[in-house]
Structures are given as structure tokens and as C-alpha cells.
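Exercise 7. Given the components listed, write out the predicted structure of the assembled complex. Treat all entries as one system.
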Amino acid sequence: MRDSFIIDDAVGKKFLLNREALVSADVLKREIKNIFSKCWIYVGHSSELKKPGDFQTRLVAGRPVIFVRSATGAVQCFFNTCRHRGALVCAEREGNRRSFVCVYHGWSYRNDGNLAGVPGAEAYAETFDKSELGLRKPARFESYRDFWFMNLDPNAMALKDYLGRATDYIDLVTEQSPSGQMEIISGTQEYDIAANWKLMVENSVDDYHIPTTHSTWLAYMANSGVSIEVPKGEGLVLPTKGWAIDLGNGNFTTDNVNFRGRPVAKWIPIYGEDSKPEMEEIRKELVARLGAERAQRVADTNRNLVIFPNLVINDGSSVTVRTFYPASANKMNVRAWALGPVEETPTARARRLDAFLTFYGPGGFATPDDVEALELVQQGLANWEDDPWSEMSRGMGRGPDQQQLNSDEHHLRIFWRRWSQMMESP
Amino acid sequence: MDRVKNPPVTRAEVEDFLFQEAALLDEWRLEEWLGLLTEDATYQVPPNDRPDSNPADTLFILSDDIVRIRERVKRLSSPNCHAEHPHSRTRRMISNVRILAAEGNLITVAANFVVYRARRHEKIREYVGAYRYVLRHSEDGFKIKHRRAVIDTHELGSLGAVSFIL
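Answer.
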């Protein structure tokens, strides 16, 4: 394996990525050690656990965990592994339980993780201590605005510090809700892509690809009455201007003026004439609560936010929370949800979900073409030894006083610099 | 729901119609397929973890009204629909057809499906599940008012996408 995967030449204004980073099983091994075991990894959202005892089991960075609200109401995360001989103690996808009972020998754990019962406990010696045999937890488990993350590194910085300036962008999303409470909406999109997981990071924020990869989605928007005309002479590839912004610690976002409609609260004809009064009400509430300027930020701008390494919040045609893990160097598992304000009316909720499907997901008008593009990249990368470098310099020619656009590759370079730095540390 | 007694049409008539629809889809004769739909037709694929849900309150894989179905066909017919260009080769097996209910000129139909999808050099993907149709019947035959394809796998997983008409 190489020592360094990027050539980052500020003077020559060149940025090259070595493609071994996207194909190598050894690289993946090091990623699991240096990145997935050191960074804050998204587990779930408080709203998925409404009542005490509610749980979700899921794989997080390859580890089976139970994400659960205990009897006292605390949100917790446990490794889904019996302390006795290792079986999953919960094989259900979701539900509500006071305890988790291992089907192998019957060890049972309360929903706060403590070991409650061991059949035939008298066969153990005095040194057998049930209080030491509760379900194990990740070293750290913290939340920001109901988004829960785990960290396997006990010495990691606090989540709030790790998120840094990204919190302002999470706030912009959660401020859609009058009470500041957003919820994961029922229904999960889970699908695999035969491509390296890092290609999904790039794709989730890369606005350069939209006119080509998604021309049929743009045509659908145009047919529905959305203007997709690109202003001449400004170097834009999309109808409105957008920027790419470094948020620190490998986190970054795009920040775009919306043209494609927003359920909160920018009307487009797809929503229907009869939705106009309600959407005006939603906007009025935003202005009253947040003031005109901030309301405009919430309602009229989109953001595709990456929390390093593998959480994406796309606040565009709708809000999607999307996370993805490497299954191998050339395959990833993607999981995506819709997010909405808890107090949303049934009509606004239906509009949000319908808007989601115009673009996102495995049946949307855009995502299947992203999947195709990423799989074509992965297939092309079979030539990595003969054609080893990807060219990722777009935007480096801009002067220091010029902002980087969402259609540049500035934000992709932020990701790769951070990734590279973490991979090179021992 | 059990099979309805004394339905106004025969199972064989319904099967003939569904087999004809399957042939149009397998042959990518999508404009002709649109002709089988009513002016208020809907087409849905629910999420794998909520197969019995409603698209008004649950995130679906897809949920189209007739306007979006037509847009979907436009998209699928474009060479810029990268996920389906070149077109997947599909082969639909439809069985266990039952007439569940009949009311006025509408009948509710259940059927099982296996849709094999082959694309370039990839392994064949098997979409296995159940259809639910609401068909409108008249002297001119059937029209599809509602079609819903429920996939049996617990997650979409390696099926990847529902980029064609399932």
C-alpha cells in the first residue's frame, strides 16, 4: 500500500487522487482502524425511539448495535452481542422490549444493558459477577439536536467540538420545525451500490455532475414548470449559484440558492395550486419565529452536508438523512430516511414525502443514475494500476478572493485531505 | 382478503390481461403500456420495512400519480436515463392470480411475481414479491387504476434500485 494517496500542489494548482484508495482491501482495513474507529459515526435519531423500551437494531460501521431507549427514558447504544458466547441478543429489526433474551442459553439483559438473568446461575463460582456482564457499549455515545453518534475511541474530542461549524447547518435543517424538533419519518430505503463508499461522499455533494448525470431529472423539473435555465457568463452549471464551504474536521457543505422547490417553504408547480395557502403559512411562521433573513436561509437555500466520514444530510428537494458503510472495498450498503418537522400537518407531510421521491432514492428520478455513475467509476477503476490518478483540481484556479462553487471540487478535496491525513497517522 | 365469490370476470380474463401487461413491459413497449392505465392511475412500491403503508405518511421507494408515471416513461425512454440505458432485460413470471374483491366496475386483484432483471455482465437480479391491482373493467376490457408492487426482501439490498417499471 502507498504511503500517500494525494498530490496536493497549491502552486501548480493541481490535486490528484491515487485510485488505489478506491479499490484496495488493505486501504479498507486501515480505514476501519484509522477512520471508522476514531471518528464520530452516526447511529440514529432520537425520534426513532419514541417510548421507553423502543429499539432499533442496525449495523453501524459493520458492528451490530442496539439503539434503544431504556426504561428510564435514556437513549443508549449497545453492541448486540451476548456476553456469554457472542450471539446477537436481539435479532428483530425494531420493536419495544423491557429485556433482550439470548435465544442460545437464555441470558437476559434489561433495556438499560444490565444482565438480569442467567439460567442455572448456581453452576458458576463466587467470582462470577453479573454486574460486570452487562452489554458492552461503544466508548462514547453523544448527540447533537437528536442526531446520535458513537465513537470507538475513548479519547475522541466531544461530538459538539467535532461537528464544529457544521452545527450551524444542522440548525438550519432543524429550524424548519417550529419547536426545533425534527423526526425520522417511517420507511427506510436500504440498498447496495457496487462501488467504494467514498464515491458516495463525493457524489452526495458534487453539483458538477447534475447537468449530465441527471439531465432526465432536470427535464422532469422543466416539464413540471420549474425554470432550469442556466444564466450565461457566470461559469455556472445550474440555474442558481451555490458555494462549497469548509466546516472543519473534514466536515463540509454545499450552500445553494434553491431553484428546485422546497417543502419548507418554496412552492413549485408539482406541489399543486391548492398547496399554496399552506406553504405561505409555513413561510409566515418561519419569518415570525426566525426573522426575515434567517427564514430566507431556511426556506430558499439548499445544503448538502457531510459529517465526516459517512453521514450526509441533503436538505434539497426534501430532507434526507443518508449513511453508508463499506461492505468491501468495492461495495457499500446505503441507508436513507426522510426527515420532517414533528408538528407537520398531514398535507405538508405528504408533500414532503412526494417531493423526496422526485429526486432521491432507489425509485427516484435521480438516485438510480447516481448509482449507475458510481458503479461505472468502480468498474473503470479496474484500470487503476495502468491509469492511477484521478484529476480533482476543479476550482483551484480561482483566486483567494473568489469563493469556491458547489460545482467545483474544493469540498471533495476537503474530504480527501482529511481522509489522507487520518490514513497516514500511525 | 379472500377470493371473492362469483366475480363479474373470470380469473383467466384477468390473467390474460396481466400477462399482456407483463409482455409490454418486458418488451419495453412503454407507450403502449401507458394505454393500459386509467387517467387517475397510481403506481407504488412501498419500502421494504413498511410493506403495508401509505405514501402520505411513509417514505416509499416510489409513489407515482399518472402525471409522474408518464414522466417516468419519458425518462425511461431517454438514452440519458443512465440506470436503464441500455435497457435491462426483464422477464416477468406472474402467478397465483386471485380476484379479491369486486365492486361496481372495479375489481381488486392479487398476484405473485418473480421479475428477473439482467443487465450487461451483471448477475441476474431476482425481484420477488406480490402485486396488488385495482382494475376497471368495461366492454373494452381492463384498465389499471392502481398497481402496487411489494418486494419480499427485508431490504432492497443488492437489488440496488427499482429503475425500471416493476
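Discussion: Chain A has a mean pLDDT of 96. The interface with chain B takes residues 93-94, 185-194, 213, 215-217, 219-220, 223-224, 333, 337-338, 346, 349-350, 353-354, 356-358, 361-365, 367-369, 371-373 of chain A (CB under 8 Å).
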